[in-house]
Amino acid sequence: QSALTQPASISGSPGQSITISCTGTSSDVDDYNYVSWYQQPPGKAPKLLIYDVTKRPSGISNRFSGSKSGNTASLTISGLQTEDEADYYCFSFKFNNEFGGGTKLTVL
Amino acid sequence: EVRLVESGGGLVRPGGSLRLSCTASGFDFPNYWMTWVRQAPGKGLEWVANIKQDGSEKEYVDSVRGRFTISRDNSKNSMYLQMNSLRADDTAVYFCARELYSGSPRRFLHWGQGTLITVSS
């Protein structure tokens, strides 16, 4: 059981925007600005989308954005595309290095 | 091009041992923290262990501490995971990952394709 809580699933239509939340205890997400987000298509390795809450690695589309409010971090995907269909994981660390339980995104 | 290739996976009986390797290329391996992450079939990602550039610092998830040992050989651009006293719940695909930039552990930019460990009698 992960201490970082994500919705199990979310869906959206092409062109829409969706937001995936990642809620932790005050000892992880809230205290430190070290939340990252990963995309994992079926059968593939994860891919870093966002780090340090809001930063994008080189080459990641600006359709992906991160934010944080209190003890909840969020990943927003705008202009949904069919290729965005994947599992998404948040990750945070302080005393524990921990992934959220993951959110399956379906693009209808 | 950064490349990470895991090897050493396979079928092992409960209580057995296995050593995974991660061979790196395309970057200055000694300058980067390295990490193992695993994923049980149909489940989410689990951070397993990491190791500092010179091997002087190592961290483990509670469930493997005392059973798994992470190490590296910078002369061979390789990282290892020695897994002892294996249990059924260690069954997973094991990924190796490299940090985003030197000195940024826990931000995993580059990943291997993973190697499957199955613990079963």
Largest interface: A-B, 22 and 18 residues
Largest sheet composition of chain A:
6 strands, mixed
- Separation of the first and last Cα atoms of chain A: 29 Å
Number of helix segments of chain A? 1
Shape of chain B: globular
Oligomer: heterodimer
Computed over alpha carbons, the radius of gyration of chain B is 13 Å
Helix content of chain A: under 10%
Fraction of helical residues of chain B: under 10%
Beta-sheet strand percentage of chain B? over 45%
**What's the total helix number of chain B?**
0
Question: What global shape of chain A is seen?
Answer: globular
Structural class determined from secondary elements of chain B: mainly beta
For the terminal residues of chain B, how far apart are their CA atoms?
40 Å
Question: Into which percentage range does the β-strand content of chain A fall?
Answer: 35-45%
Arithmetic mean of pLDDT of chain B: 96
Low-confidence stretches of chain A: none
Structural class of chain A: mainly beta
The major β-sheet of chain B equals:
7 strands, mixed
* Average pLDDT for all residues of chain A: 91
Instruction: Give the SSE order of chain B as H and E letters.
Output: EEEEEEEEEEE
